[in-house]
Amino acid sequence: MSELGEVFISTFGKPDPAVPCGISFKGHNLAFFWDELQQEIGSGWFLDRFVYLFGEGLDDFQVCLDAWRFLLPDNKERMVVGKNAYGAMLVAEEPSKHALSSPIGILDPLTVSYQTDPNLIFSNLIGFYLPEKKLSQFLNTSLYDAWRKTLNDELELHEILAIKVPLTLGGKMEASNFQPENIVDYYQTTADIYKNNIPIRR
Hints:
By secondary structure, the chain is of the alpha+beta class. The protein has a domain at about 60-195. Helix content is about 30%, strand content about 20%. The longest helix is centred in the last third of the chain and has 15 residues, at about 185-195.
């Protein structure tokens, strides 16, 4: 097994449940490296269904990127490679050009922001940023864990625990400020509201 695969699995284990891979770096001459790595780490649900990574169906959320285009700094090619229970998405930039070195951005409903880091690329997302818990807000399961324990329920792929009032508008990370919603509906219905009322953070 590769070092990347070992590091990722040591923290996240294998997906439960696993689903077919939905991420492809079509046409890139290094695409086979991803095919091999994906076979090692799998794709699907991790952390008690808190995060969904690399699985089929993520392309359905391109419409969320379109809805919140006011946060994106340009019209680059972008591909959703993962999401968490609050609807935050991991986004690979220009994947057909860069493959495993694709820059990664995070579109986050909690703060209504799109954040990038020049050091964060697809390969070290898997081998460092995720397993070392460097993306602390994206991996903050506290409210989700409490919701799971209280209701003994789980979210399907298109469902999220949607924040009602974002943290940037004074909202709190507490159960009363979240409700289950369809992720596409959430992004589309909040787009105009947030675009006109929240300072753009990139």
